[in-house]
Amino acid sequence: MEDKIKQLLTTVIYPESGRNIVEEGLVENIALQEEKIAVTLRFPKVRDPFAVKIKNQAETVLKQALPDNEVFVLVKEGGHAPRPDLKAKTTTKGIAKVIAVASGKGGVGKSTVTANLAIALRNMGFRVGVLDADIYGPSQPKMFGCEDYLPDAIREGDEDRIVPADALDVKLMSIGFFIKPTDALLWRGAMAVNALKQMIHQTQWGGLDFLLCDLPPGTGDIHLSIIGELNLDAAVIVSTPQQIAVADVVRGVEMFRNKQVNIPVAGIIENMAWFTPEELPDNRYYIFGKGGARAYAEANGVDLLGEVPIVQSIMEGADGGHPAAGIDARVEKWYRDIAQKIVEKVVKDH
């Protein structure tokens, strides 16, 4: 039985070397007990970026071939090797401007706004990338239609590089490429921070005019870590009109304005500002209240970058892997106007 399991595991390839995980020496132990199979994989590198991908592939292979057995694949990381200085050899040096897209709370459409802004900037002729750093709900792979993408690793000189997805002429790297959807909420603290650091500094970004960072909602360790790892040029805050959402905007703005952070807030985008039915194009229904983000912006010296209504094509585009700014002229105009303001502010401020 052990030989059969090893043979099955030879179908799992380690991306960096192109060899299977048995040849690579990653299979440390195979334990059999009644109808349970436990395989231990040991990776020499601490926080190997492909550990989770390999674990998931090994589990899938064994469960499909041996459906009558319970399968457990454990991952261990070897040694106490010194943590590599990722910043010293970062791949971000070819990125001209980095924009954080944040929200005070979840459910305001931050990721949808990020995807459509990326497409609007692309349409304006810029080279654009998206870093999906929302570990609690990575949704950019779905929005760009590349949920099945599995990042490969290549060698550049003596460095490992992770190949991003090229989706709709946007370079995309997401934590979602490395974990199952059911695992996202299990990522906490240091584990998530270390994975994000590798994504930032080891992704083969190449030359980009803009990198948009889709941050998790709220404020916390992930935000501060990204602020420490990337030279952010500006932050954009997404809100909806209702007062409870706008109240959460305050925390986001103050985080970036904090003197120890000191990142310019380019402005606020009011998402889901109103609803216009297709059959009544001149009507506006303010389902979530009216102008809450605008009022906050005016009172606190923050620019309102634009208002985006509830439009069916935006929802359909997000679900279908084609952001609406690329297929609906009305949506493209709203987002192009917002993108133009962001570009002007970033260039003016720097």
Topology:
Elements: H1 2-9, E1 27-33, E2 36-43, H2 51-65, E3 70-77, E4 95-103, H3 110-123, E5 128-132, H4 140-143, E6 153-156, E7 159-162, E8 165-167, E9 170-174, H5 189-202, E10 208-214, H6 221-229, E11 234-239, H7 243-257, E12 265-275, H8 292-300, E13 304-310, H9 312-320, H10 329-349
Describe this structure in words.
By secondary structure, this protein is of the alpha/beta class. 34% of the residues lie in helices and 24% in strands. The strands form 3 sheets. The protein has an 8-stranded mixed sheet, sandwiched between helices. Strands 1-2-3 form a 3-stranded mixed sheet, covered by helices on one side. β1 (27-33) and β2 (36-43) form a beta hairpin. α5 (189-202) runs parallel beside α6 (221-229). The longest helix has 21 residues, at 329-349. The radius of gyration is 22 Å and the shape is elongated. The protein starts with a helix and ends with a helix.
Q: What descriptors fit this protein?
A:
13 strands, single chain, 350 residues, 3-stranded mixed β-sheet, alpha/beta
Helix content range: 25-40%
Spatial strand order of the main sheet: 8-9-5-10-4-11-12-13
In the predicted model, the low-confidence regions spanning at least 5 consecutive residues are 79-83
Mean pLDDT: 85
Output the number of helix runs. Answer: 10
Q: Outline, from the CA principal axes? A: elongated
Number of strands: 13
- What's the Cα radius of gyration? 22 Å
Question: What's the N-to-C terminus distance?
Answer: 64 Å
- Strand-pairing-aware structural class: alpha/beta
- Which range does the strand content fall in? 15-25%
Succession of helices and strands: HEEHEEHEHEEEEHEHEHEHEHH
Please outline the major beta sheet: 8 strands, mixed
